Amino acid sequence: MNINDYGFLRVAAASPKLKVADCNYNTEEIKQVIEQAQQEEVQILCFPELSLTGYSCGDLFFQKALQQKALESLCKLVRFLEERPSIITIVGLPLLIQNNLYNVAAVLSGEGILGFVPKTYIPNNNEYYEKRWFTSGDDLTGHTVTIDGDKFDLTIDIATGKIPISSTGMIFQTSFGSFGIEICEDLWMPAPPSSYLAMQGADLIFNLSASNELVGKNRYRKSLVLQQSGRCNAAYIYASAGWGESTTDMVFSGACFIAENGAMLAESERFSPKSELIIADIDIEALRYDRLRNCNYISPIFHEKTTINCYIDFVTSDRMFRRFNPHPFIPPKGESGESLSEVFDIQTHGLAKRLLHTGIKKVTIGISGGLDSTLALLVTVKAFDLLGLPRENIYGITMPGFGTTGRTYDNAVALMKSLGVAIKEISIVDAVTQHLTDIGHDINNHDVTYENSQARERTQILMDYANKINGLVVGTGNMSELALGWATYNGDHMSMYGVNTSVPKTLVSTLVRWVADTRTEEEASRRILYDILDTPFSPELLPAREDGKIAQETEHFVGPYELHDFFLHRMLRYGDAPSRIRFMAGQAFAGEYSTQEIMKWLKLFYKRFFAQQFKRSCMPDGPKVGSVNLSPRSDWRMPSDASVNIWLAELEEWDVSG
Q: Is 488 annotated for ligand binding?
């Protein structure tokens, strides 16, 4: 497996043990961490600020012996890396140029010293006195330096040098992604250099830092890293000084973070007496997709750009330093309460606004005893409570047909009773039987005509009854069904307002369970919701089995909804190609679905998604609740007659080669 072929790049942040002003010791520790990272096939590795000397050297930075020893150690690292051409390493050191000392990051590889990036913003307040020793690198933009690594009596000549040095616009380009660098305080400024680097094409930002610990500071520092990674649509790799720095006036914890577009991928153990190394696989393609969609993401023309090409090897191991969430629409446990409440409130307020705008005070809603209609009813009840309208103005209509089972019917009626809404029961059996007779269709032929006639009859009842009471039809269909076209055109596909329009099936289940667990006080109501949750997904359009149980289970026909929701999220949120989706699904559902099963349902997903766009092109209004939405008035505009051939061909090609 080559993760780079699928758009990923492996990076690491390290905080090695060190001794202040002992470059030999520090270099050996750095070498050990490099070897450890190379065993894990890390491609770019970042160390803290001034990692060759230690950050807390104070006035020792003025000593020529320390300056030259740092350069000597730098050259030793270059020679060390000549035998390890697969990894790029970023270290920090003091660098004397003419009469000024700069705090710089050095980018090293088997090719040599690729470039220097000086620190732009030099702190000189509170416990920091860096301007006592260092000069801002602003005036070095676009220059070069020369280092004679054989003599170690290092010559640095800004006029005739060969190694580029720049505080702005220096982009390091690899075959798998590009990166830029800023140093510690740069991140804390109103306009960090990383903002410009990202707009000039850097997919990753590395920050060499020496941030001391104060009560509450780590939380704020972490928020800065997360926010800047999100603001830049980039990965942000942060490595800070730790064990071994002087504790005369400050303590350093070795805080290291790897964030990607606002999400934390890896975090080090703070205050560790060992050298710390954290690793993550960055999704470069996903980052670039977000930038592609952002029409304001343009390079600032007032900053010069220097591109440095550099080599790294492929990652070939089967191990991934990244977790793929198999249920991307479901919020993580620590955030689930707040996030689910937000989804429910968005649905509720969307419906409430539509009722206020139209002046309508009554609704009809089809209640089947399934999850979708259950969630829609719960939302509708909350909207009516919010508006101060009586729940009796909600007309829950259950419409038993040929496939209705006792379990779903009983749950539908019991749910409506427990919520105090008006209950109507209108059987569709006689009407559909007459309709099939009228069009000359054999009632024993259980084909698509047999199924869809039932769905359309139910919709007609809802629409006509809404007209009768001057009401509004609340739709119950979910986003997963819209993606697959698992709805009858102008049947359950249609309503006057669809509250579940952008809620996928996996999230529907989660929301109903959340309401049962946290918003339902009556034990009887809670039991009804739990039984609905345990009921197989089914439109119940085919006759029940002899034992009275559901015969038509949706997932037997279209495949597992959790797979389809994963496919949908990756395709729409990140624009992923079929091969990437298959690869990530294999990682996310390892041990649950075989490669053959994933391929089977992914092919079906593409076929149905492309073939059923015509239903989405005329779907009813409904509130957007998350980052993915299929409304033609919101996030997704697609011709109804687009060809699926390219997507299927890529899967077939992978199937043959794989």
A: yes
Q: CATH 3.40.50.620: which residues of the chain? A: 333-657
The pLDDT mean for the chain works out to 91
Residue 287, pLDDT above cutoff 90 = yes
The active-site residue, picked from 49, 213, 267, 562, is 49
Would the annotation count 380 as a binding residue? Answer: no
Annotation says 119 is catalytic? yes
Rounded to whole angstroms, the maximal C-alpha distance in the chain is 100
* CA dist., res. 233 & res. 499, Å (int): 31
> Is 487 annotated as belonging to a binding site?
yes
Average pLDDT over residues 519-544: 80
Residue type at 357?
H
Helix ranges, 612-644 (H): 613-616
Decide if 342 is catalytic. no
Reply yes or no on whether 232 is catalytic.
Answer: no
pTM score over 0.85: yes
pLDDT of residue 539: 59
CA-nearest of 57, 33, 104 to 268 is 33
What is the predicted pLDDT for the residue at 553?
60
Q: Which fold has domain 9-309?
A: Nitrilase/N-carbamoyl-D-aminoacid amidohydrolase (3.60.110)
pLDDT in tens, 341-365: 999 999 999 999 999 999 999 999 9
Is 367 marked as a binding-site residue?
A: yes
* 634 vs 580: CA distance, rounded Å: 25
Catalytic residue (choose from 46, 184, 232, 310) = 184
CATH number 3.30.1330.10 is the correct assignment for the domain at 333-657: no
Instruction: Look at residue 525 in the predicted model and tell me its pLDDT.
Output: 86
